[in-house]
Amino acid sequence: MKFLRIAATLFLLPATLPAQHRSIAPAPVQENQDASHRTRLYLKDGSYQIVLSYHVQGSVVVYRSAERAGHQEEIPLELVDLIKTQSWAQLSDPNAPRTPILDPELAREERERTERVPEVAPNLHLPERESVLALDIFRGTPQLVPLTQTEGDLNRQTAHNIILQTINPFAHAHQLVEIKGQRASAQMHVDRPDFYIRVDSPQDADDEAPAGAFQVKTGAADRKPERVSPNSRYVIVQCDVRQDVRIVTSFETNLIGSGKMNQDVVETTQTLLPGGYWLKVVPKQPLLFGEYVLIEIINDQTLNLSVWDFGVHPAAPENRDAILPQERRKPRLETRGPR
Hints:
By secondary structure, the chain is mainly beta. The protein folds into two domains: 68 residues, SH3 type barrels (Roll), CATH 2.30.30; 190 residues, no CATH class. Helices cover 13% and strands 33% of the residues. The chain contains three helices and 21 strands. Strands 7, 8, 9, 11, 13, 14, 15, 18, 19, 20 and 21 form an eleven-stranded mixed sheet that branches. Strands 1-2-3-4 form a four-stranded antiparallel sheet, covered by helices on one side. β16 and β17 form a beta hairpin. 23% of the residues are buried.
């Protein structure tokens, strides 16, 4: 009987001992079985582990260590920086879509280029070389019309003075400029066109002035082009159209801003565009049908008599030199892998 008890006890041992020492198996971990796939498991102290895979399981992160032949280990979740871990995985994945990072110097050059040729209407950009343009609309299409600068035939009373003419603001009205022809070559089809005037930046001081830039001249010899100042004011003056000529008459510059200007003088508002390359000039009131000049006012006593002439006639044909909208193909930046 004693032998039978011992045999029974030995028979039961294999069934009971394993039940006392078996550890609870963790939930299945989704792992990449490709041992060549490695990623970083970042900790909140800035360090990281090289792992083959990892998975959050409750309050721990289960991972297979690449440094210990894929051995499965655990680490408390509160010590793991999952955001940095996932961010690094996306950046290091050659197949993952990502936004190319533009070099700061290239970004600065692109911003400067955009400021030099800003968009003033959908797909319509100011050019780099023209100096003064008007934004017109012809049959529903916005267009930029270059304005030519003319000195006309100066009245003999001011013939041999420089074009930046000193004017007595209290003098009686008299002829300033006489322009040949009854109509300007540039004709607007809207009564409140926007004007854009190229302003030279400081770094352009040694560059050659673009075509149509402001000039300081004497009656005999030309001088170096004058820099265009964003501090100048501009008015629009309606011309007196006579037989084959347009006459520009003087006005009292000291009345600008007083609301007492002559009806043939239209004041403007001015805005310097971002980057400081262009000045936007907008008439404060609609322009009647007729012929006009845009005049620069240096100060209360000085005008630039080299003016820009244009007309306002909705039925006029399209301006042949107008710049039309043109859709630009966006540049494509190639993504290169790490060297």
